[in-house]
Specification:
This protein is an all-alpha fold. The chain folds into two domains: 211 residues, MFS general substrate transporter like domains (Growth Hormone, Chain: A, Up-down Bundle), CATH 1.20.1250.20; 197 residues, Up-down Bundle (Growth Hormone, Chain: A). The protein contains 14 helices and no strands.
Amino acid sequence: MPVVGDLRALLHLRYFRRLLAVRLLSQAADGVYQVALATYVVFSPEKQTSPAAIASAMAVLLLPYSVIGPFTGVLLDRWRRRQVFFLGNLLRSALALGTAALIVTSAPDWLFYFSALCVTAVNRFVLAGLSAALPRVVGPEQLVIANALSPTAGTLAATLGGGLAFGVGLLTAGSNTVVVVLGALLYLSSALASLRLPLDLLGPDQVTDRTPPTLATAAQIGVRDMTDGLRHLRTHTDAARALTSMTLLRFCYGALTVMLLMLCRYAWSNTESEGLALLGLAVGVSGGGFFTAAVVTPWAVRRLDTRRWIALLASCAAILVPALGLPFAPHPMLIAAFFLGLVTQGAKIATDTAVQASVDDAFRGRVFAVYDVLFNVAFVGAAAVAALMLPPDGRSPALMLVVAAIYGGVGAWMFHVKPSHPASR
């Protein structure tokens, strides 16, 4: 198969392999750290978890991506990217060890959240730098396959890191400290792996002034770019509709995620370790849905189009969510987790395609910055709404029906709108 040959040729490139190793170790550490944060907030025996606490944890994990994301390019175009990987992961390793110390000493929750917020804030620079550095280690003809391989491998590494964190947590009787230390070691490994890349290989080139811009200047540039992206979307309705649909679907997925966490913690388990095992199983099943979406979406989009595929996915979710979710039983909910993983990731792939196909190249980066903010803010907003609606055990028919209605509304809307850009067909 040609794709297999392309992948083999790609993996023969020495510096690509080294950059990929930095990504895999970094994102595996992200998976470990994020699971450690979630289990500390939700499954610690000494804590009485509430939906509000879960919403706070999700805000810590995701809001830095939204707040810092639009401004990262301003700084990454002035800093050596190899040093961003080395110093960024080194800093995250130290901060993660600090988080472990806070867990041991039972520090105030706000201090714990602040430490976690710093770790995830640095992560935004590392991930953006990895994408910016990729064209420096592959040829132009290999860039498409490299863009397909690297992020997918990184997501898989994060999922495996999360699974490793669940396993270590169960073996150590729920010791979040051990899991966080494991994440710190993986961050350190990623930092050391980056030293195998030459200092100036990853760019940027021709930067005479490497002094970072002032905070005010960076903020001004970021806000201006976001405003330009929003203006551009007003005249590119296919991309705007896809982004609106994806934002609503992401909101639904976030609300159901908080519900699932509460069900695993209180409704379906008698002990923290049993609830943690159920959550790990649900995450793995949802990951299977994500993988299935990556396989079937290209085939489906070729036979339908991005708009109809999003409509079909949302309509199926509108039926499956109440049918499988309203009994609030573990086995039907696990089946729902698989399909919701497929729906969410399938819609995201279709949205990415719609934006890439219908947005002018000069504005594509700015539109994706808007996309990034909407994607993460929708998840955090969903967690906040769920915190208001969910009872302590997580059983909320009202929230389930609201989510099903949103899925149904998105499906009906996307079936009836007409594409305005030929590529969207």
